[in-house]
Each structure stands twice: as structure tokens, then as C-alpha cells.
Write a structure and sequence with these properties.
The complex is a heterotrimer. Chain A is an all-alpha fold. Chain A has two helices and no strands. Chain A is elongated. By secondary structure, chain B is an all-alpha fold. Chain B folds into two domains: 57 residues; 453 residues, Cytochrome c oxidase-like, subunit I domain (Cytochrome C Oxidase, Chain A, Up-down Bundle), CATH 1.20.210. Chain B has 17 helices and two strands. A two-stranded antiparallel sheet of chain B has the order 1-2. Chain B is globular and about 85 Å long. Chain B starts with 6 loop residues before the first helix and ends in a 25-residue tail after the last helix. Chain C has five domains: 105 residues, Alpha-Beta Plaits (2-Layer Sandwich); 217 residues, no CATH class; 100 residues, Calcium-transporting ATPase, cytoplasmic transduction domain A; 152 residues, HAD superfamily/HAD-like (Rossmann fold); 99 residues, Calcium-transporting ATPase, cytoplasmic domain N (3-Layer(aba) Sandwich), CATH 3.40.1110. In chain C, a hairpin with a 3-residue loop joins β18 and β19. In chain C, α2 packs across α4 and α7 runs parallel beside α10. The relative contact order of chain C is 0.09. The chains are: A mainly alpha, B mainly alpha, C alpha+beta. Chains A and B meet through α1 and α2 of A and α4, α7, α8 and α9 of B. The structure holds protoporphyrin IX containing FE (2 copies). One protoporphyrin IX containing FE binds next to α3, α4, α15 and α17 of chain B. The site of one protoporphyrin IX containing FE has 27 residues of chain B, from α8, α11, α13, α14 and α15. Chain A: It comes from Paracoccus rhizosphaerae. Chain A: This is Cbb3-type cytochrome oxidase assembly protein CcoS. Chain A: It holds the Pfam family FixS.
Chain lengths: 63, 550, 749
């Protein structure tokens, strides 16, 4: 199955991209408040974009 | 609609359109005498229509609205209407194909109307035309809402949407002319494939740029599902369509791979198309619209993230179950089988997560047909993935392969899951997008629900029966050790089921027509809604799915 | 304290509260300021959006974000002059009590993320190696197989080196002090499997254990991550509970000005101002003014005591009614509160090290396995006439197959599931050791005030004129004295009368004018001064209009719900039951008259409680201590295992192994039940793991273990163990239903 020498590397690279994006999301603090994030999509009092604010990632504070 | 573009944007859009039209002209000129020439005319016609629409509002004054204060919804609006139009076309053709199998005279004896040419019009029409447009439209909505940010650009979404539809039109018209690569779900030829790559890259860029602009730090899980859909489909599409055109002035091309290698690539693609086109993106839809409509957060957000990674990793190698008992090495088949069976775990985790979210809101499911669409879709998702894992076991596949059982499985997934979740999402979305109080007729939604459900059930049961009978008849031996039934006899035995399937398809198609009508009437006749929302607001909306102790 | 209308709240926020609020400020990495507030009352998405919308609409807020899991608000103020007190006041107006977030929760624990990263890497490796292995097992041959083997190695080696670190480092630190823990055999198995497979690979061998090594890591890391997450969640939930201890004091400067001073900087001789509603910051002597003090968390006295000039007041007592000035006697580090905390850590140290079940198992297990591998090696060497390569291969496969994958999961998974279950019942568990200890207690010791009782007295029914009752309630709602609160709460049927010229006299009661008539609510003798006749009792609360007939109120302590159920359940389980109280014997006896007890001790000082428990432990007993007060902190730490209600003092909550958020005491019995079932499941898990080994080891010793068998057997036993543990949450015996049914049964008999 010589074709696998193409398909397997392609898959591995995709897997690595996945792993890298998981690492990114972890470092970015994406999983810090899963409960709250599940709730957030439910608010829809005002269906409009937020004025762009500069959010700080919640991980940053150093006491 | 185009008047929401500024003059520069309009002229940029016009230039792009004209460039594509020029490409069509080149195809028409160099491809004279080859089907590619005809395809060139299709491109010219399509872009000309787009150009005229643009020109009609070319001199309109620049919009004055404050763009930072609203989402850009025009492409979404157009997208869901196009999706519904494709639904009617694709399912209409599906009904024709189904009827043709029951009453072969419906073949009409023309070259373009042969089964082999019309069938891919059905499959591409529903998967790419209906499913693809529904995915693109809802993704535009979801990425903006969950990022709480407007898209970065006004031309790019139109390019993606219209460009994708150009691909669909080239594909469908090409099939009728007899143009095909003979790879299922990847039938379009090289020029269409190249065009799709351009569109898809633009889509990916648009998505990433919107996420980069987000005002909400968290990226909601639906976006991950959509991103996986976009990214993986791009890679699959490119690898599977590696082909060398016989000539640059002709439509025909030859695959870069030969024999069983090509088959392996095709089903590596084919099954991942199921995974990332027909599953991942629609799960994104489910994870957004179901909680939203039910007014309660997803049962376990953690599980939704976990099953995302499970699906991404397990699906990749499941494809070889399409090639059981073929020239494919035995161990590659076993590999596909193993991973297909393991795939059941993340699949059921997703279906269970969706149903558990509704646990405690069953009264809403009872009263709200839109929510019921989504609930039933989740049930069918669980059903078809269980069935799929079962069929992937080699001996089972020995019975099911080549029979209508596969077709039954396909439509349990395609009608029961893909179409129902799309309809549910569209009903949830329409009033929000057009700022309407509600759908024009809730009775019509109810009617659509029952038509779709009964259509699916009739279709799937007919195919299960016919498939198993077929499979058994083909492997029944007489006393002398010869096959007991001729192929013709098995065909005759199928007839009643094919009639039943056509009936089921008719009901399902009727439902889709009702849906299109209802959406159009909502846009035209429903009063505008002042506080712009369409979701239940009862106080329990904020209660957690599982009441905490005390 | 009178009711404050919204807009005035900011001005009325006391300087002390403003000073404390400043503790919430931290510097972000980019140098800007952020404010972290702990808001325990955030419950759902509705609260989140309400808070975020309100805060984000403010001019002095650049952005505000709520963390629902940690119940915390992070605010990035706009402009340089941020005043956190304003944010707290704004939250207060929305109905959310907020305080400066604890430092401990401010930065999430980095080990959690590290474990998650390792788990992800191991998962990635496991998936891909599994893919290649399935291909090899199902018949890929020749160059394909060699290529797949090479690829597996290329994935496995970095994955093992990265993801194995948590185990390697833990094993290494155990070995350095000449001990073994569970991680020693795990490390050995993983490393040997990898090295052996590499060696085989170089020789073109067929038997590679890469998949076994990496899958093993994945499973174990998963279990460990869950364990970590559970502990983090519980500790953040506990830290999220409102802090009771004061963080600073208001000091009157010689020039008469008031200034906020951090607690550590308060010196003896400083003149402190303690307003109503504040905690006393350091031990002090009242110099001016008088007030009622709630000392229930300090001494266990349920009803407030009067403090007037000359009286000593201890740090940690709550000032209820009046504002007083007091002279600090000792610095904070020597205050009563600090003494209690020292006593607690002392007791903790004396408690001795408890060895976790998993480590006890490892101590037995590791030598057996290693010996077995050695014997296998020797006997193969002998039977194969010195084919040491073959012998080594078999010996190592013994090590791999006996690798305590299931054993490593047996305990943490059960504990994680149990913790999740407890959390749903409203009980927070700090770590797995607590639940192991709770399962084998033989006595239960309870504090009285705040533990057996609700801390909120109840009003016995009164019969009187509606007008009088509504007048009494009108006065009662203006006071924060517990008796007044009970009257206000239990007379809900009466509308509160409008009261003017309210005046609270600490130690006596509250006075005002209703419809122009003078009225008093307070001590009987004080009320009798204006009434026409004496009240029924001079000390019990009473109410009267000037010249009218006084109405006596009887206020009694109330037992928490579920006290009887808990005591029944424990005495049926053969546990000794003890009450240790700092309160008077009379009140303890009154409360416990219908409880079956082994021992009742009243008037206990904090040190008495500690020595009581230490004596029990010396006798070899394993007591559970349930208490809430500051005076219980030492005892909680000295006990075998301990629980505290969420209303407990900060020190009490820190000392306890479990904190229950429910109102009823039945949480204690329920937690005990869960602990016993968890212990049973852990035992079953060990049995399963041992059974697995009984089957696997002979195969391995006989040299019959192929990598396929190793990987399958290990995954199967792990999944079995996980599945068995999940049973702990699968049958949620509804707590409340349980008790109700029992009560019905009791009523029937
Ligand atoms: C009105 C409803 C529909 C009807 C009547 C219908 C009918 C058919 C028929 C007759 C076939 C050919 C089966 C054969 O070759 O034996 C077919 C194939 C197919 N249809 Fe549909 N269909 C409907 C809806 C849909 C929808 C909504 C989808 C997807 C979203 C879908 C996806 C497919 C696919 C993927 C195949 C190819 C199956 C295979 O190759 O095994 N269909 N359909
Ligand atoms: C766990 C998930 C699933 C597994 C393991 C699975 C497995 C299978 C198997 C074994 C076949 C038959 C292959 C053959 O005999 O030729 C098949 C066909 C198919 N399945 Fe699934 N399936 C799954 C989920 C789905 C879902 C959710 C859809 C959604 C629409 C879907 C769409 C299809 C299609 C379109 C085909 C027909 C392919 C063809 O044209 O031959 N599958 N699947």
C-alpha cells in the first residue's frame, strides 16, 4: 500500500496541527471557565457586536 | 442587499465577477468542441447574472449605517434561502431517481437523464448544495455571534457563498453533460476542483480573521467543529483530487493514483467527507442552536470538547470499511473496521450530550417543533452512527455492502440527521436574521416536522427491508449448490420497497417545499420585532440542566 | 444598620471595607492594574450576564469578565485611578456580595495545565501508535511493518519522554528517600517497555511494546488529571466562600483622623474603631461605646454578649449593633485568632502522616513484582541454556504486563467519581486522603453552636395583638441582633410597622416611635422601664409600647435539619457520639436531651477540645470531628478526619477535610455513606487488578505475552476499573428522599 506513505504523513500532520491548536487553546486560557462559557452563548439581550474592548486573558494576573 | 456595500466594495466585487467571467470565456473559447466549452458558458451565464445584480445597485448611495454596531447578516440570509432552494432541487431530483428505480420508464431515454448522470445531481445537490450552503450560512452566523464581532470584510463572505454556488452549478450541470471523475462525492473535474480550492481557502481566511477579531475571549466549541470541517475538507479535497488533466483544453483528467491505491484514497476521502462534511459541521450547528433554542447550556461542555477530539482522531482511519472484501490488503480493512467501531464512543457521547441537554425541558420539545427537529436529529445521529459501526464489521458488511441497506444507512444519516438539524437550525435562525417576531406559520413548521419525520421513517424502513432481503437473496443457495435467485428476481422483490421509498421521499420533499414557503413568507409578511430576539425567555432558561443539590 | 438605598451605598461603604477592597488589586503582566473579586453568589448564566452588563456599562471599567466556575469577577479598570470599593458597591447593589479574591485562587495551579498537556500528548501518541499497531497486528508485513515500527518509535520516544515526566519525577523523589510509591513500578514499566522495544526495533524484531507504553501513560495521566482537577475545583470552591476574617483595621490617628491600616501593621496601643457589622481585627479593650458581640464562632455561645468600656474583645468576634473604640492589646500575630491557627497547625503536625492506600499497596506490590521478574529471568536463563536475550525479553514483558495500570487507577478514579458525586450533594472534598479516612471512623464528635444548631435562633409561637406584633416586627427588622432577626423572620405573617426615630442601645435593645408612640424591643427589664408592668422574664426579649402591656418572646436555638437522622445512622453503625461545646452545660443538655450520646462535654476551651481528640487518637480511636468555630479549628485538625459547614470560620474551613454547603446536617451521614461505598469500590478495584494479574502473570512468565495481548489486557483491565468506579455516581440515591422515607417509616411505627 504505497499510497499510505502519502496518507499517513498527511494524517499525522493534521494530527499535529490539532495538537498544536490544543496547546494554543490551553495556554490562551480557553478552558478556564467551561461552565460560564457554555452559558454565555445564551445571552441575547442585544444582538449586536460588542464594541471592541481589549480583553486580557484571565490567566495573566500575577499577585 | 448589495446596497449595504460601499462603492469601492461594489466595484471590487464587480471586478472579481468579471475576472471569473473572463475565465469562463477562456474555457468556452479553448474548450470549443469539448464539454469544458459548455461549462465555460455555464460560468459566463452565472457570472453574468451576478454582474447584473451588482450593476443594478451600482449607483446606490454609500450606506450610512454604523458597521461596528451590527453583525453582517446579508450573506447568511441569502445563504439559507439558497440552501432551501437547493434542498428542493436536490430532493426533487432524489425523488425522480427513486421513482426511476421503481418505474424505469421515467428514464425518458435521453442521454442526460440517465440514472448515472442524474443520481450525482441528487447527491451533490443535497450534500453540497443544501448541506454546504446551510453550513456556510450558519457558520457566518455562529462565528460572528459567538465572537461578538462583525466579519472583517464585506466582499469575502459573498465571494465564499457565491463562489461555492458557482462550484455547485458547474458540478450539477457537468454531470448532466456526462462530465465526471467517477469518484463518489468528488465527481467534478479538475477545473471545478481548483476553483473550489480557491473558494475554500477564502472561507478559511474569513473564519480565522473573524475569530481573530473576537471580543469574547472564549472560542465556543461550535467554532472548533466548523474549523475542523473547513480545514480537513480542504486537505481531503486536495489529496483526493490530485489528478492530471488529459489536456488543459479538455474536461477529462486522470487520477494521480492507480487501482486499489486510488480506491483507498477515494474512501479515505469519502468517509472523511462523511465525518467532516456531514458530521463535524452539523455538530457545530447542533452545539449552537440546540442550547440556544432550548434556552439552557449544553449538558456537559467538557464532553463536547472531548468528543470533538475523539471524532477528529477516530474518523481519519475509518474509511477503509468501504472496501471490505476488495483488493485492499486485509490488514487495512481490519484497521478501518477497528477504528469504525471505536468511533461509536465519541459519536454517542455527542448524541447523548444533546439529549441530556433537553432532559428537563421536554415540555419545550413537546411544544416547539423547531426544537423537536433538533431532538430527532440527535436521535437519528445516534442511530445512524450505531448502524454505521455495526455495518463496518466485516462479516456484517458482507451482507450489507452493495445492497439498499447502505442506502438506508445513508439516508438515516442524511435525512434524519443532516437535513433535520439543518431545518431546525434554519427555523431557529430565520426570525433572528430578519428580525421577525416568529416564523410566519408555526403550523407549517409543525407540518414540516411530521412530513420530514414520516418521510425519513418510511424511507429508512423501506431500505432496511429491501437491503436485507436483497442481501439474503443474493447469498441463498439451492440444493444443487447454485444460487437460488436470479438478479432479476431480487429486483422484482425490491419493487414494493422502491415504491415506498419514493413515497417517503415525496413526503420529505413536500416538507422541504413547505419550509421554503414558510421562510419566504416570514421574510415578506411577518412584522418586525423590536427587541431583536427569537428565543424563549422564560425564567427557567437560566436554570442549570441538572438542579444542584439544595 | 438601617437599610441603605442604592445610590448612597458607595458613600456609605465603610472606610474599612474600602481598605479591604484595595486588596483585590493586582498587576497584570502588561503592567496595568486588574481587580479580582470573589463573588460566591454567582449561580448561573443569568447572574453572569447581569454582572457583566452592569460593570461593563460603567465608565471606570474597561472590561469585566465573570468566571462562573470559580465564581470570580475580573475587572480591568479604565484609567489609572481605579477604586475597587466602587465595584464592590456596584455588585452589592445588584445583590451580590463581593470581596477581594484570595491570592491562592488568583493564579490557577500550573500543574493542572501541565498534566493536561501531558495527557494530550500521550493521547495523540496513543492514537497514532495504536493505528500503526492495529495495522501490524492485523497482518501488515515486510517493509510496511518495518516502516510502521520505525514510525511508532519516532512517535513513542518523544511522547514517553515528555508525557512520562510526572511519573518519572515522582518516582525519583520517592526513590531518593528510599521509599517506593506507585510511580516507581509505573516508571519502570514504561521506560523498560520503551527501551526494550527500541532494542527490538534495532534488531528487526517483531515484538514492540510502544503502544502498551504510551496507552498506559495516557490512561494513567487521564486518571491523574481528573484527580488534580477535582482537588482544584474543591479548593477553589472553598476559597470562593466569603472570607470572614478581617484584612485590616480602622485606626484613629492622634490627630483624630481615621485611617485604614493593614492587619499586620496594627500595633499595641493603637486606637481602633470597630463599626457595626465588622469583625474585630485584633484583641483589644473597649475604651468608648458599647455594643453586642457575636462570639459564637469563638466560644460557641449562641447569643450575643454585651461589651462596654473596659471589656476585652477578641479578634474574630463580630460586632453586631454599635460602633466602639478600643485599644489594641496585641499585634495581629499574637491575637486569639492567630493562636487558634497556630494550634491548628500544631495539631495537624501531631496527627501523624497517614499513608494513602495506593502507597501501601505499592509497598507490597513493587517488591513482589520485581522479584517475580528476576525469578523469571533466572529460570528462563536456566531453561534456555543461557539465552540471556530471550530471558530478558520475557522478564521485561512480565514487568510490562504487571504494570499497575489498573492498580494506578484503582484509587484516583474512584475518588474522582466520589468527589463529583459529593459535589452534586453540596459537599466539597479537599483530597482523596480524606475520603479514605472517613470510611474507617469509629466515633463522631460534634461541636454544638453553628454545627448542631443553625446559628439562627428561632422564635417560639406567641399569641398577641396584631398591632403589637407588627410593631415589634417593625423594630426587629432594624436590628442585626440575632434575637431581633429571629423575631423579624418568624413573624413574617405580620406587616412591619413604620418606625421613626430608631435608636439601638447595645446590650439592651432597640427603641423607636410608632404612630407617635414610644416602643421598645429588647431585654425584658429594659422594656419594662417604659411599660406599665414587668415582663415575664427580665432577660428574655420582650416588646411593649410606652405604658402598654409587654409581650414576652421566647427565643431558642434551633437544631439543624437532619441532626436526628445523622445521629440515628451513626449510632446504628456502632459509632460513639460525642458533643464538645464551649457553651454552658445547661444549654448543651437542653439541646441534646433526646439524642443518644456517649459523652457530653460543655464549657470546653479550644485547647481542651484538641486534647480530647488527641486522647482519643492515643487510645487508637479514629474520630470524625464536625465543627465550625474558630475554637474548633485545632480540634478539626487533630481529628482523624473532619468536616465543617460552609458557614464555618475561615480557619475552620481550612482545617476541615470536607466542607458541606447544605443546610442540613444529614450531609455528614450522607458523606460517610459515600465514603464507605467508595472504600468498597476501591477494594473491588484492587481485587479486579489482582485477578487480572493472576491471569496475566502466568502467561507472561510462560513467555506467551505478545504486545497485542499486553495492550488489550491493560486497556481492558483499566476500563473495567473505570467502569466499576463509575457505579459510584450511577446510583444517585437521593439524599433528601432517603431521609424523608426514613422519617415516614418512623412516623408509621
Ligand atoms: C427527498 C428525499 C430523498 C430521496 C427521495 C432520495 C433518494 C435517493 C436515491 C433514490 C438514491 C440512489 C440510491 C441507489 O443508488 O440505489 C439516493 C442516494 C443518495 N442520497 Fe438521497 N434521497 C433523498 C434525500 C437525501 C438527502 C437529504 C441527502 C443528504 C443530505 C441524501 C444523500 C444521498 C446520498 C449521499 C446518496 C448516495 C448513497 C450511496 O451511494 O450509497 N439524500 N438518494
Ligand atoms: C460512527 C459513524 C459511522 C460509521 C462507522 C459508518 C460506517 C459506514 C459503513 C460501514 C458504510 C458502508 C460502506 C459500504 O459497505 O460500502 C457507510 C456508508 C455511508 N455512510 Fe456511514 N457510518 C457512520 C456514520 C455516518 C453518518 C453520520 C453519515 C451521515 C450522513 C454517514 C453517511 C454515509 C454515506 C453517505 C455512506 C455511503 C457511502 C457510499 O456512497 O457508498 N455515515 N457508513
Amino acid at each position: 500500500m504505497s499510497i499510505l506513505s502519502l496518507l499517513i504523513p498527511v494524517t499525522l500532520v493534521m494530527g499535529l496541527v490539532g495538537l498544536a491548536s490544543f496547546f494554543w487553546s490551553l495556554r490562551n486560557g480557553q478552558y478556564e471557565d467551561l461552565e460560564g462559557d457554555a452559558e454565555r452563548i445564551l445571552y441575547d439581550e442585544d444582538d449586536r457586536p460588542l464594541p471592541s474592548r481589549t480583553y486580557k486573558s484571565p490567566k495573566e494576573p500575577t499577585p | 442587499m448589495m446596497s449595504s456595500l460601499t462603492a469601492t466594495e461594489r466595484s471590487r466585487a464587480f471586478m472579481i465577477t468579471m475576472t471569473v467571467l473572463l475565465g469562463g470565456l477562456v474555457m468556452a473559447a479553448v474548450g470549443h468542441g469539448d464539454p469544458i466549452g459548455m461549462q465555460g458558458w455555464v460560468v459566463i451565464l452565472f457570472t453574468a447574472v451576478v454582474g447584473v445584480v451588482l450593476l443594478k445597485s451600482f449607483d446606490a448611495p454609500d450606506p450610512v449605517e454604523d458597521r461596528s454596531a451590527s453583525y453582517y447578516d446579508d450573506p447568511t440570509r441569502v445563504g439559507i434561502i439558497i440552501a432551501l432552494i437547493w434542498a428542493v432541487i436536490g430532493m426533487g431530483v432524489g425523488l425522480w431517481v427513486a421513482s426511476m428505480l421503481a418505474w424505469p420508464n421515467l428514464r425518458f431515454d435521453a442521454a442526460w437523464s440517465s440514472f448515472g448522470r442524474v443520481r450525482p445531481v441528487h447527491t451533490s445537490g443535497v450534500i453540497f448544495g443544501f448541506g454546504g450552503n446551510a453550513l456556510i450560512a450558519t457558520s457566518f452566523h455562529i462565528m460572528q455571534r459567538t465572537s461578538r464581532a462583525r466579519m472583517p470584510n464585506q466582499v469575502l463572505p459573498w465571494f465564499v457563498l457565491i463562489g461555492f454556488n458557482l462550484f455547485c452549478v458547474i458540478a450539477a450541470s457537468g454531470y448532466l453533460m456526462g462530465i465526471t471523475q467517477s469518484k463518489e462525492y468528488a465527481e467534478p473535474e479538475w477545473y471545478a476542483d481548483l476553483w473550489l480550492v480557491v473558494v475554500w481557502v477564502a472561507y478559511f481566511i474569513l473564519y480565522m480573521r473573524t475569530l481573530a477579531r473576537r471580543n469574547e475571549p472564549h472560542i465556543y466549541v461550535a467554532n472548533w467543529y466548523y474549523l475542523a470541517f473547513i480545514l480537513v475538507v480542504a486537505v481531503l479535497h486536495i489529496v483526493n483530487n490530485l489528478a492530471i488533466p488529459a489536456s488543459l483544453t479538455g474536461a477529462k483528467s486522470y487520477s494521480a493514483f492507480a487501482g486499489v491505491q486510488d480506491a483507498m484514497t477515494q474512501w479515505w476521502y469519502g468517509h472523511n467527507a462523511v465525518a467532516f462534511f456531514l458530521t463535524s459541521g452539523f455538530l457545530g450547528m447542533l452545539y449552537y442552536f440546540l442550547p440556544k433554542r432550548a434556552g439552557r447550556p449544553i449538558y456537559s461542555y467538557r464532553l463536547s470538547i472531548l468528543s470533538f477530539w475523539g471524532i477528529v482522531f477516530f474518523y481519519i482511519w475509518a474509511g477503509s470499511h468501504h472496501l471490505h472484501y476488495t483488493a485492499l490488503p486485509h490488514w487495512v480493512q481490519t484497521l478501518g473496521m477497528t477504528f469504525s467501531v471505536m468511533l461509536l464512543v465519541p459519536s454517542w457521547a455527542s448524541a447523548g450530550n444533546a439529549l441530556m441537554t433537553l432532559n428537563g425541558a421536554w415540555h419545550k420539545v413537546r411544544d416547539d417543533a423547531t426544537l423537536r427537529f433538533m431532538m430527532v436529529a440527535a436521535v437519528f445521529y445516534g442511530l445512524s452512527t450505531f448502524e454505521g459501526s455495526f455495518m463496518a464489521i466485516r462479516p456484517v458488511n458482507g451482507l450489507s455492502h452493495y445492497t439498499d441497506w447502505t442506502v438506508g444507512h445513508v439516508h438515516a444519516g442524511a435525512m434524519g440527521w443532516v437535513a433535520l438539524i439543518s431545518f431546525g437550525s434554519i427555523y431557529a435562525l430565520t426570525p433572528v436574521l430578519w428580525r421577525r417576531e416568529a416564523m410566519y406559520s408555526w403550523k407549517a413548521v409543525e407540518l414540516h416536522f411530521w412530513l420530514a419525520l414520516s418521510g425519513t421513517v418510511i424511507y429508512v424502513f423501506a431500505m432496511w427491508n429491501s437491503g436485507i432481503i436483497q442481501g439474503l437473496m443474493w447469498r441463498t443457495y439451492g440444493e444443487t449448490g447454485t444460487l437460488k435467485y436470479s438478479f432479476l428476481e431480487s429486483m422484482i422483490a425490491m419493487h414494493p420497497y422502491y415504491v415506498a421509498r419514493a413515497l417517503g421521499g415525496l413526503l420529505f420533499l413536500a416538507g422541504a417545499c413547505v419550509g421554503l414557503w414558510n421562510v419566504l413568507m416570514t421574510v415578506r409578511h411577518m412584522p418586525r420585532h423590536a427587541p431583536e430576539r427569537d428565543y424563549p425567555t422564560s425564567s427557567e432558561a437560566t436554570e442549570p440542566a441538572v438542579p444542584a443539590a439544595e | 444598620m438601617t437599610l441603605v438605598d442604592g445610590d448612597a451605598a458607595e458613600q456609605l461603604m465603610s472606610p474599612l471595607q474600602q481598605g479591604a477592597a484595595r486588596r483585590s488589586l493586582r498587576t497584570a503582566r502588561d503592567g496595568g492594574a486588574i481587580c479580582l473579586l470573589s463573588v460566591p453568589d454567582i449561580r448561573c448564566g443569568g447572574c453572569v450576564s447581569k454582572i457583566e452588563r452592569a460593570l461593563n456599562a460603567r465608565d471606570d471599567v474597561a472590561s469585566a469578565r465573570v468566571n462562573l466556575s470559580l465564581k470570580r469577577v475580573q475587572i480591568t479598570p479604565s484609567g489609572s485611578r481605579a477604586d475597587p470599593a466602587l465595584f464592590i458597591a456596584a455588585l452589592d447593589r445588584l445583590g451580590f456580595a463581593a470581596s477581594a479574591a484570595d491570592d491562592a485562587t488568583a493564579t490557577p495551579d500550573p500543574t493542572g495545565n501541565g498534566l493536561l498537556r501531558a495527557t494530550a500528548v500521550a493521547g495523540f501518541g496513543a492514537m497514532n501508535i495504536m493505528l500503526l499497531s492495529v495495522a501490524v497486528w492485523s497482518g501488515a508485513l515486510g517493509t510496511t511493518r518495518d516502516a510502521f515500527h520505525l514510525l511508532s518509535a519516532m512517535i513513542a520516544v518523544p511522547v514517553v519522554l515528555y508525557a512520562g515526566q510526572p511519573f518519572f519525577s515522582s518516582a525519583w523523589s520517592a526513590l531518593r528517600v528510599r521509599r517506593v510509591n506507585m510511580d516507581v513500578p509505573i516508571t519502570l514499566a514504561v521506560l523498560l517497555a520503551t527501551v526494550l522495544s527500541l532494542a527490538e526495533l534495532l534488531q528487526g524484531g517483531e515484538q514492540l511494546f510502544f503502544d502498551a507504553a504510551v496507552t498506559l501513560l495516557f490512561f494513567l495521566l487521564g486518571g491523574r488529571y481528573l484527580d488534580q482537577m477535582m482537588r482544584e475545583r474543591a479548593s477553589s470552591a472553598i476559597n470562593g466562600l466569603a472570607r470572614l476574617a478581617p484584612s485590616g483595621a480602622m485606626v484613629r490617628r492622634p490627630d483624630g483622623a481615621l485611617a485604614y491600616v493593614e492587619l499586620e501593621e496594627v500595633k499595641p496601643g493603637d486606637r481602633l474603631v470597630v463599626s457595626a457589622g465588622e469583625y474585630v481585627p485584633v484583641d483589644a479593650q473597649v475604651s468608648e461605646g458599647s455594643t453586642d458581640l457575636d462570639r459564637s464562632l469563638i466560644t460557641g455561645e449562641p447569643l450575643p454578649v454585651l461589651a462596654s468600656p473596659g471589656d476585652m474583645i477578641e479578634a474574630g468576634t463580630l460586632n453586631l449593633t454599635g460602633s466602639v473604640e478600643a485599644v489594641a492589646l496585641r499585634p495581629a500575630a499574637e491575637s486569639f485568632l492567630a493562636q487558634m491557627i497556630r494550634m491548628q497547625s500544631e495539631a495537624e503536625r501531631n496527627r501523624g502522616t497517614y499513608e494513602r492506600i495506593a502507597n501501601r499497596a505499592a509497598r507490597l506490590y513493587a517488591p513482589v513484582v520485581h522479584l517475580m521478574a528476576l525469578l523469571t529471568f533466572l529460570s528462563w536463563l536456566w531453561t534456555t541454556d543461557g539465552d540471556w536475550q530471550q530471558a530478558l525479553f520475557v522478564a521485561i514483558s512480565v514487568l510490562i504486563i504487571t504494570c499497575p495500570c489498573a492498580l494506578g487507577l484503582a484509587v484516583p478514579v474512584a475518588h474522582v467519581v466520589a468527589a463529583g458525586r459529593l459535589m452534586r450533594m453540596g459537599v466539597l472534598m479537599k483530597d482523596g486522603a480524606g475520603i479514605e479516612r472517613l470510611a474507617n471512623i469509629d466515633a463522631a464528635v460534634f461541636d454544638k453552636t453553628g454545627t448542631l444548631t443553625t446559628g439562627r435562633p428561632r422564635l417560639e409561637p406567641v399569641i398577641a395583638d396584631v398591632a403589637d406584633l407588627s410593631a415589634a416586627r417593625g423594630l426587629a427588622i432594624r436590628s442585626s441582633h440575632p434575637a431581633a432577626k429571629a423575631i423579624a423572620a418568624d413573624l413574617v405573617a405580620e406587616p412591619a410597622a413604620v418606625v421613626e426615630q430608631v435608636q439601638e442601645v447595645p446590650g439592651y435593645g432597640i427603641e423607636g416611635r410608632i404612630d407617635g408612640r414610644r416602643a421598645r424591643l429588647g431585654r425584658g427589664d429594659w422594656v419594662a422601664e417604659i411599660a406599665g408592668e414587668p415582663a415575664s422574664s427580665p432577660t428574655d426579649p420582650a416588646f411593649a409600647f410606652a405604658g402598654g402591656a409587654p409581650i414576652g418572646f421566647e427565643v431558642t436555638e434551633t437544631l439543624r435539619d437532619g441532626v436526628h437522622d445523622t445521629f440515628d445512622a451513626f449510632s446504628r453503625g456502632g459509632l460513639d457520639l460525642v458533643i464538645l461545646s464551649g457553651d454552658s452545660r445547661e444549654r448543651v443538655m437542653h439541646l441534646s436531651h433526646d439524642l443518644v450520646l456517649t459523652d457530653i462535654c460543655a464549657g470546653m476551651k479550644p485547647a481542651d477540645k484538641v486534647s480530647y481528640l488527641e486522647n482519643m487518637r492515643h487510645e487508637g480511636r479514629r474520630p470524625l470531628m464536625v465543627g465550625d468555630g474558630l475554637n474548633d479549628a485545632g480540634a478539626l485538625a487533630a481529628a482523624h478526619v473532619s468536616m465543617a459547614p460552609s458557614s464555618a470560620s475561615d480557619a475552620g474551613r481550612t482545617a476541615a477535610d470536607f466542607v458541606f454547603l447544605r443546610k442540613g446536617l444529614d450531609a455528614v451521614a450522607a458523606t460517610h455513606r459515600v465514603a464507605c461505598r467508595t472504600a468498597a469500590v476501591v477494594r473491588q478495584n484492587f481485587t479486579l487488578a489482582i485477578c487480572y494479574n493472576c491471569i496475566a502473570i502466568p502467561l507472561a512468565v510462560a513467555g506467551l505475552v505478545t504486545p497485542l495481548i499486553a495492550a488489550l489486557a491493560m486497556s481492558a483491565s483499566s476500563i473495567l476499573v473505570i467502569g466499576n468506579s463509575l457505579r459510584l455516581s450511577a446510583s444517585p440515591e437521593k439524599l433528601r428522599h432517603g431521609t424523608r422515607r426514613r422519617r415516614l417509616k418512623k412516623a408509621a411505627t
